[in-house]
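Subject: two folds for Thursday's group meeting

Dear M.,

Sorry for the delay on this. The cluster queue was jammed most of the week, so I only got both jobs back this morning. I'm pasting them in the order they finished. Each block is the input sequence followed by the predicted structure tokens. Could you check whether the formatting survives your parser before we put anything on slides? The first protein is the one we discussed after the seminar.
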Amino acid sequence: MTRLALIYGGRSGEHDVSRRSAASIRTHLDPGAYRVTDVLIERDGGWRVDGVPVPLAEALRAIRDQDVAFPALHGPYGEDGRLQSMLEWLGVPYVGSGVFSSAAGMDKAVTKRLLAADGLRVTDGVVLQEGAALAADDRARLGLPVFVKPARAGSSLGVTKVGHWPDLAAALALAARFDRKVLVEKAVPGREIDVAILQRPDGSVEAGPPLEITVTRGPFFDFDAKYDAGAAFHIPAPLDAATTRRVQERAVRAFHALDCRGLLRVDFFLPDPGGEPVVNEVNTLPGMTAESQFPRIWRHAGVPFPALLDILIAGARTLGDRVLDHPGSDSCPAGWARSSPS
């Protein structure tokens, strides 16, 4: 039986979303195959192991004793490389991308630079530090409307669609509540298409059938639309075969450009039929409720949620970079000294 640490909660604004992902993962794991240790990170940074409050050192020991970790965290302090770095230090293989890919994928501005360098089309925008104003020439180039968003936050937290320049200051202030680094992006008219990438334990990479998002309530696919039934998902998206292949190929390119591992969701705008897809953003640890886009896409592709979890966990154990020979063991590569929580 595989010993698995399910790590969730966290200090970001997506704490509740993370708890829902973890509950869904726990429900769909095969109880005959996995012995699950619950590791909850409270909003204030406190730790609970199987419901019991514990000091950090004890939580780290509990994680180190596992065969594999499944981070079900979203946003800063969980999806941005910090937790991944801790798991690397402990020598525990984990589901999802490594430290660099997680950090780069969390930062929308860095993501765009890396993807553009690989020839992928991305949204035009400007990066502003907290308190900075948008220059007149940038306003002229971007035009209206624009989207203002925190560079390092998820679930559309702090995102505003600005249709009039006098509203920009309030939008910048809202985004700065979530991150001191803010993006102002040109609106891209077109269809919203998501593509889920899954890496098998043998290293092969697949793109699932594209999903189209239709917003049924609200001005765009914001937090309320995502989590309060304000959008409809269509799988497969009604695209012609050539366009389907195009968005899938671009999603696989994004996966490799960011050096991802295990899974990735790539969100596109499709400006016109036959046109070049525009990458809006990526998600290295997408939502994992049974009704989230990533599991829905793979369920449609013939991979039910329990089997999807098995694939991700098996991949974590075969694809991840190992610092230690085995998590929890006393053996180390020659010349290395093992660190232990005290």
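Second protein, same layout:
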Amino acid sequence: MHEEVDVLIVGAGPIGLACGIECEKSELSYVIVDKGCLVNSLYNYPRNMTFFSTSDRLEIGGVPFISHNPKPTRPEALEYYRRVAKSWGLKTRLYERIEKVKKAEDQFQITSSKQSYTANKIIIATGFYDLPYLLHVPGENLPKVKHYYDEPHPYYDMDVAVVGAANSSVDVALEVYRKGAKSVTMVIREEEINPRVKYWVRPDIDNRIKEGSIKAYFQSNITKIEERSIDIETPNGDLSIPNDFVLAMTGYQPDFSFLKHIGIEIGTDEFKTPTYSEKTMETNISGVYLAGVICGGLKTNAWFIENSREHAELIINHISKLK
């Protein structure tokens, strides 16, 4: 099967959907292709997660987002973006991976895992949640090691190690502790809990560590993972402790290999910021645009739904002027 469109959007997250909505408004033909489900990154968030942003800041396409509390939950967000996609009749192609992109004159030939496309323009809105930072230690490939956290129930009466000191690590450590883990140990590379941890959570984790309910090893690293234990390198020497699960909340990174495949230049700065125009969002490849968190490279806290929704309008305005 082959389709010809004005715009092919890679990524069916909130910003990819926003780009599709702008295409609808401008009467541009388009498809939104994603290797996973609708808003796949949000789907992979912890089941009981609450957003930092209020619901109105997550709205796209003029569709009201009504939640029970000012800050919506993951299930409410999934319901909302399903409703947005349905109400706008967005043309999504889900569970379909883009495998090859080739530019031929003023068009792009795209091959996916299911079919092929010809597109005049490409928008990349792929986010960063699919590639976790690895520990690179022996045993990391064991089934007990998780780079994504869903819910606390599987860790009841288990010895659990949580790697990291940012918001996700702290939330996970507190939740599995309160839901009955036998022991919770935090392994933290830095010398303290991350200063950016939510201010209303910080006293909780500090007090749990102080009283010994949660054990924390600072300036420490896991050096080996085995079926029933982990080895930790600490300032006070190496040790081995009992362990059933390792929850490595070490963060995630964009898929730079896909950007490089297309020919997008990646900066030499510490964040590997991709090249694009802040006025049009167009990259160094004419006709290829970036939208959303992918614009920040490794600085994944630079762009959120609420401050990158405008990317969709900037891009489609630029494309429309070129028609």
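Two things I noticed about the second structure. The mean pLDDT is 94. The chain has two domains: 2-131+252-322, 134-248.

Cheers,
T.
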